[in-house]
Structure formats: structure tokens, C-alpha cells
Amino acid sequence: MTLRMGVIGTGMIGRDHTRRIQQVLTGAEIVALSDVNLEGARAVKADLAPNAEIFETGQALIASDKVDAVLVTSWGDTHEDYVLAAIAAGKPVFCEKPLATTARGAKGIVDAEVAHGKRLVQVGFMRRFDQGYNLLKQTLENELGTPLMVHAAHRNPTVPDAYVTPMAIHDTLIHEIDTFRWLLGDDYVSARVIFPRKTKHAHAGLADPQIVTLVTTRGVVINTEIFVNCRYGYDIQCQIVGEEGAAYLPEPMAVTMRKNARRENAILTDWKGRFVAAFDTEMQAFIDEAANGTISGPSSWDGYMAAVTSDACVKAQENEGAAIDITYPDRPALYN
Ligand code: NAD
Ligand code: ISE
Q1: Element holding 184 (H helix, E strand)
Q2: pLDDT at residue 200 above 90?
Q3: Average pLDDT estimate for 293-318
Q4: Among all ligands shown, which has an atom nearest to the Cα of 127?
Q5: What is the mean pLDDT of the chain?
Q6: What number of CA atoms fall less than 13 Å from residue 177's CA on the CB side?
Q7: How far is the CA of 175 from the centre of ligand 2 (A)?
Q8: Residue 147: which of 225, 238, 226, 227 has the closest Cα?
Q9: What pLDDT band is residue 300 in, cutting at 50, 70 and 90?
Q10: Does residue 1 surpass a pLDDT of 90?
Q11: CA nearest to 142, candidates 55, 72, 240, 251
Q12: CB under 8 Å to 329, separation ≥6 — which residues?
């Protein structure tokens, strides 16, 4: 069976997921495209999915009998309505992060999925499918003993002008928020933010860099630097320190060149290249599971947990240096 998929939001990642579904992965075809910018959807059709129907609205795409499963890759604040509509239609839905931009919105999705009685939603936390993070998790579990601290950095070369201070949390740190819950098998109890000296490359509406400290229920302290105007490349760093040793996230493979009295390795410049294999694996898993009627990847609950944590981190931004408590409700059985 070929899973007939529809994409809502044909910008950077919508186009990239369309490419991988059409050209790299197996078991699915893009049969529908939609974007508030219809020209963008038409361009993706012309370049990558000639058989796809263009829908004027995402809601019409979700309702169409031609679409078995939905891919939501529009702007973050539009995800909630589309995911709710897909659940109401009983269709599997892959939603890029964030699941919703508020904890309240994410909770509404969890409630709708629980009422439906079966998992339909996978959230695009692709780092869980990254080979480097999986090796780090194995090393933590087999070699490091009890984890004590995590030191991490999330650096982007630049961001668009529309990217403002809270987006460092909702848009960027949200990857670490989910990844460290999964890596450590732990939840968070508090968040604190401090702002180092600001780079001259950040505009007036963006505090950059930022350092976020999350503390887990077992007392692990996680320090993450977010620096989205670092200029030099796309650089994701992570070191876990345990009672018996420390382990580092592998660097992406790059040839070392010796030339002109220098030794160099290229550094990647965007997320597409850095996590290309992880994106392929997460999407293939979604296709296979959606076709079988079972979804097991990052869940609405994970999206909700990330949103609760994000809300606390944004509050911590607004109260520099203060520890903001994080509390989570009980997990519904659907997500056990
Ligand atoms: P983008 O601006 O390039 O594309 C978003 C597209 O959505 C645009 O074409 C826009 O016109 C369209 N759109 C906006 N509102 C819409 C609506 N209501 N209905 C239909 N279309 C709408 O942005 P992007 O970089 O592709 O990011 C899209 C989403 O993917 C964001 O939520 C972002 O956080 C996420 N993302 C995830 C990763 C990752 O590493 N997993 C990487 C990049 C982006
Ligand atoms: C973007 O949306 C992503 O998800 C990238 O992985 C992240 O590095 C970037 O900061 C976000 O804007």
C-alpha cells in the first residue's frame, strides 16, 4: 500500500520533507499540497510532486478523501488547529515542532487524541532518530554511571529578523528540551535563564546568546547555550558527565584537510545537512507506522511536555536569574 500524504506549509522544511518522501523514502507519495502562499505550493508541485493536487486551505486538504496522512510544516502557531483537525478526521499526522506554541494548546491536542482512543500524532523531534544521539544514549546507559551534568550548545549562524527572544526557547531550545528528557529518561523541575553580553549581530528584539539551566527530578543540571548569530556555522554540542566518565556527542563526519600550513574540518551551516539522516529515519518510521495504523515516535505527550517546559523557560527569560518551578500533570495511559 502507498500512503497518500498531504503537506500543509511548503516552505523550507515542507519542501525538504516532500523531497525525501518523493525521492528518498519508500511507501508514500505526496498527493496534496497547501500553503497560505499558493505560489509556494505550486512551485513545490512543479519541482517535486507533479501529481499533487493544490488545496486552497489546509483544512480542505485534511478533509479530502484522497489524503491518508497529513504533514504539518507551516509556522509554529498554526500547527495546533491543523493537528486537531487531523485527529477529528481520524488521520495520522506528522507535526513539525512545536506541537503548539503554548502548553494549553498542546494539552488540547493530548485531550483530543486521548478521546479518540488511539495515537495518531508524531512530533518532529528528529534528534531521537539521530545516530550520534543514540550512540550517546547507549554510552550513558552502559558506561557513564549515574548522570550528573549536561553541557550543551545550540548555535545557528544567523536567524531571520522575525526571530525574537522567546523563539530561542519555542523554536530552538525545544530540541534540547525534548532530547534531554529522552536521553536521561527524566523530567524537569526548574528552569533558569541568564543573558551573557549581547552579540552586536543580534537585532534589538533578540537577546543573543542565552544560557538556560534546567534541573531534572533526579538533580541532573543541564546547561545549554543558545547562540543563534554565531556566524561561523550550525553547531550542535553536547557533553554528558556521569559518575564514571564523560561522553561527547559525535561531530558530523568531515574530511580533515592539511593545506597551507593549516589543518581544517568543514563545519556544516544548516539543520538540513546536520540532521539529514535523522529526518529520513523519522519520516520513514512515520510512513511505515501510519500505513499499519500504529504510531510510536515522539508523541503529543512529548510535545506537551516540551511546551510546558518552554512556557517555564520563557517565564525564566522574563525573570532573569530566577528559578522557575516546572510541574507536570499525570501521564494518560495512552502514552505509557
Ligand atoms: P518557512 O517559513 O520556510 O515555511 C513555512 C511555510 O508555512 C511558509 O511557506 C508559509 O507561507 C506557510 N504557512 C504559514 N502559515 C500557514 C497556514 N496557516 N497554513 C498553511 N501554510 C502556512 O518555515 P520552516 O523553516 O519551513 O519552518 C516550518 C516549521 O517547521 C516550523 O514550525 C519550524 O519550527 C519547523 N522546523 C523544524 C526543523 C527541525 O529541525 N525539526 C527545522 C526547521 C523548521
Ligand atoms: C529551526 O526551526 C530548527 O528547528 C533548527 O533545528 C534550529 O537549529 C533553529 O534554531 C530553528 O529556528
Answers
A1: helix 174-184
A2: yes
A3: 97
A4: 1
A5: 97
A6: 29
A7: 8
A8: 238
A9: very high
A10: no
A11: 240
A12: none
Residue 76 has pLDDT above 90, yes or no: yes
- For the whole model, what pTM was predicted? 0.97
Can you give the length of the chain in residues?
Answer: 336
pLDDT, tens only, 7-59:
999 999 999 999 999 999 999 999 999 999 999 999 999 999 999 999 999 99
Q: Which atom of ligand 2 is nearest to the CA of 275?
A: 6
Sole residue written with cell 491543523: 82
Mutate to test the pocket of ligand 2, among 12, 15, 156 (most ligand atoms within 8 A of CB): 156
The confidence score (pLDDT) of residue 160 equals: 96
Whether omega for the bond prior to residue 209 falls within 30 degrees of 0, making it cis, is yes
Distance 231 CA to ligand 2 centre (A): 15
Q: Which of 119, 208, 137 is nearest to 179 (CA)?
A: 137
φ, ψ at 123 (rounded to 5°):
-95, 145
Q: C-alpha 276: how far from its chain's center? A: 13
Coil, strand or helix at 34: strand
The CA R_g of the chain, rounded to the nearest whole Å, is 20
d(CA 325, CA 220): 15
- Could you tell me if 69 and 274 are in contact, meaning their C-beta atoms sit under 8 angstroms apart? no
Average pLDDT for 106-133: 98
CB 173 within 8 A of CB 313: yes
| Residues 130 and 277 sit within 8 Å (Cβ to Cβ) | yes
Question: Best mutation site among 10, 13, 133, 172 for ligand 1, i.e. most ligand atoms within 8 A of its Cβ?
Answer: 13
How far does the centroid of ligand 1 lie from the alpha carbon of residue 28, in Å?
21
Q: Which of 74, 175, 228 to mutate to test the pocket of ligand 1 (most atoms within 8 A of CB)?
A: 74
Judge if the beta carbon of residue 188 lies within 6 A of ligand 2: no
Among residues 150, 153, 152, 169, the alpha carbon closest in space to that of 207 is found at: 169
What single letter denotes the amino acid at residue 10? T
